[in-house]
Every structure is written in C-alpha cells, then in structure tokens.
Amino acid sequence: MSDPERELRVSKIRDGTVIDHITGGQALNVLAILGIDGDEGVGVSIGMNVPSDKLGTKDVVKVEDRELSQGEVDVLSLLAPEATVNIVREFEVVDKKRVERPARVVGLLTCPNHNCITNADEPVESAFGVVDDGVRCEFCGEIVREDIGDHLAVH
Ligand code: CTP
Ligand code: ZN
User: Fold this and answer.
1) Which of 15, 86, 96, 98 to mutate to test the pocket of ligand 1 (most atoms within 8 A of CB)?
2) Domains, the chain, ranges and CATH?
3) Which atom of ligand 1 is nearest to the CA of 14?
4) What pLDDT is stored for residue 115 in this prediction?
C-alpha cells in the first residue's frame, strides 16, 4: 500500500474525464491523442510517474468539461492498455470503463512508410489493423510496434 501522506495529489475535478492508470510516461501522448496543446483554455491536470499500487508508477490526466470519442479511446488503449476512463459529473465518478483494444484504427495514426499511399496527396484515410505486436497499415503492410505515440495524426 502507498502511504497516503506521501501520495502526489492532483485536485479533484467537478466535471470532465479522468484518464487513470496510464502507462508511466505516456501522459503527453495521451494529450496529443486528445488534440490538447494548452491553447484551448480547458483545465488540464497531469500527474506523471506517480506511485500506483497496481502499476508501480502511472500517469494520470484530468481534462475538464470534455468527454472522449470512441476513436480517441481506441488509440488510448494501444498506448495505455491498463487505462481507466472515468467520467466525472458534479465531483462524482458516474462512469468508469477499462479501455479495450480495438480490431482496427481509422484516421488517427499516420503510416511511417513515406511511400505509402496514405502519405501521398490522395484523399485516403489511414487505417491500421491491430495485431499482437503492434498495428499494421492496411495499405502497405508496415508494422508499428514501439512508440505508437510518435505516429499520431495531428488534429
Ligand atoms: N477523480 C477526480 N475528481 C473527482 C472524482 C475522481 O479527479 N471529482 C479521480 C480520482 O482522483 C481517481 C479517478 O478519478 O484518479 C477515479 O476515481 P475513483 O473511482 O474515486 O478512484 P479509485 O476507486 O481509486 O479508482 P480505481 O478503482 O479505478 O483505481
Ligand atoms: Zn502504410
């Protein structure tokens, strides 16, 4: 058990989404998935590498007045398979879901293969199948195993 006196505490939020049990070090990629860079003026709190009983260390991201789309949750599951998404209303957690690995991810990642049709100036949306060891481009077969967060499509 972690000592409550020594826990890093990030304030509770009134309304919004708490993404908890994020793989340590992935918080900034999670913000990138959500398209948040701070310019939007929404309240965002981040805990990085905070102690966790379950994971050793974890990251936590709290975003006020915002809920996540299914596509965002799908990509999140690839970076942070243990994450929980908590919806908070009037300070209470009203919904808590574990993320689930999707079968495929459309439009949210870019292919690292520069010769891939999805990187040509064509109206083709990226699509990746989720495989055991990463994600596989449906157009060229390129597999991204590590650092999926480096291949997020910009919003
Ligand atoms: N939380 C928050 N603001 C609130 C309510 C909850 O920021 N008004 C955060 C908590 O700090 C925690 C997460 O939302 O990081 C989930 O809250 P809760 O379900 O109360 O915590 P636990 O029971 O510890 O969650 P779990 O069982 O998923 O570990
Ligand atoms: Zn490709």
Assistant:
1) 86
2) 4-98 (3.30.70.140), 104-151 (2.30.30.20)
3) 8
4) 97
If you take atom 16 of ligand 1, which residue's CA is the nearest one?
86
Task: State the complex-level ipTM.
Answer: 0.96
- Element spanning 114, H or E: none
Distance 73 CA to ligand 1 centre (A): 18
- CA–chain centroid gap for 68, Å, is 10
**pLDDT recorded at residue 55:** 79
The pTM for the full model equals 0.87
Residue ranges in the chain modelled with pLDDT below 50: none
CA 11 to ligand 1: nearest atom:
7
Q: Was 61 annotated as part of a binding site?
A: no
Instruction: From residue 48, give the alpha-carbon distance in Å to each of 17, 79, 83, 131.
Output: 17, 15, 14, 28
Tell me the torsion sign for CA atoms 11, 57, 101, 131: positive
